[in-house]
Amino acid sequence: MVSPQSAAAAVSVVGIGADGWPGLPPAAREELRAAEVLIGGARQLALLPEDCPGLRVSWPSPLRPAVPTLLAEHAGRRIAVLASGDPLFYGIGRVLGEVLGAERLRVLPHPSSVSYACARLGWPVEGTEVVSLVGRPAAGLLVRAYEGVRLLVLSSGAGTPREVAELLTARGFGPSRMWVLDDLGAVGETRREGTAEDWRHPEGSALNVVAVECRRASGVPRLGGVPGLPDAAFAHDGQLTKRHVRAVTLAALAPEPGELLWDVGGGAGSVAIEWMRAGRGCGAVGVERDAARAARIRENAEALGVPGLRVVTGAAPGALEQLPCPDAVFVGGGLTAPGVLERCWEALPGGGRLVANAVTLESEALLTSWYRRYGGELVRLAVSHAAPVGGFTGWRAALPVTQWAVVKPGG
Q: What is the pLDDT of residues 85-122, one digit of tens each?
């Protein structure tokens, strides 16, 4: 935020709602009247009266790459940018801050659609999960869908409510209550409601927010919010890091928000998927040489709410070239292929984590040699399940897993 003395050198970002000019406070109106250049969407610019004399410029598409060029074209002139609601809540304010720096922005926010929706429904804002589907796959909302959770979905258009209803129903949340709030803040705002499984309403305004009270259908398996999902949650051909080992693996990888994982030898993608579910904004690249398994990873990611998982089909270490720098690496397959561990270790920055699991004597011997060289923690994980033994019950042991976890020095 800039001081009043330097405001003339800043780009003003003015939030405006569906109520248009009448809904703006005096400070925002004055800023728009004084601007020499007014930049915004065509719909937003149309909300301004004639006594805003500045040159009106509509954003081109795609927007993000055009921002630096458009601002440069009007450098030295007093610029005001129009944004929907709160410019820094899934809005243009973030992009402008990245391009110009926060110190060159003067932001005048308007109530966001989230504030309006919570006010209409009586929901506490701090107790409501928000998911934006603007420019994002709809399946991403599934990672927030838990029994009793209240979701607000920022729609990408008039068809989003139907898409949300179908997605929730297909994933076992058909009984969820839904409200669609159209044109929030405008004189003609409307509200439709029903359940996801019985949603029959026609499309309304493209400016809508979908509110959901999540309810899981009877008999639908529970998927928790911590690593260690049931193995049955993943489609697989047996190449899967099993549930209990997976939970330990994720604990060793220790995801933090915004970090990137390489999952090398992805199998069913279970570790990469749980990594992305565990930390807000976490990303992952799954590397799998078998094309059928790679396709299955994509399907699992979509079904479990992390459609942004990137899948690379190819064999390591060659398939690891040109990938973005990871914060952590998991090697679940192909350990003994020449150069795999070397390439993973080389790619990690200081402070990055590497976790590798082995089930054969050959791969275990390799991990032991790396443990001697670099330290870390070497453990053996043994899991047994109760199973019938004749007319009785006994323990049936799974293959033990040797796990090496290490933090690269220098972080």
A: 999 999 999 999 999 999 999 999 999 999 999 999 99
CA distance 131 to 144: 8
Q: Which two tokens stand for residue 130?
A: 């928000």
Give the integer Cα–Cα distance in Å for 304 and 169: 14
- Tell me which of 9-18, 294-303, 351-360, 361-370 is least confident: 9-18
Helices 63-73 and 92-100 meet at what angle, rounded to 10? 50
The contacts of residue 194 (CB under 8 Å, 6+ apart) are: 177, 178, 200, 201
**Cα atoms found within 13 Å of the Cα of residue 303, Cβ hemisphere only:** 17
From the number of C-beta atoms within 10 Å of its C-beta (0-12, 13-18, 19+), residue 156 rates as middle
SS3 353: strand
- Residue 406 identity (one-letter amino acid): V
SS3 content of the chain, % helix, strand, coil (to 5): 35, 25, 40
Residue keyed to tokens 């720096």: 101
Q: What is the model's pLDDT at position 8?
A: 42
Average pLDDT, the chain: 94
Tell me 47's DSSP state. T
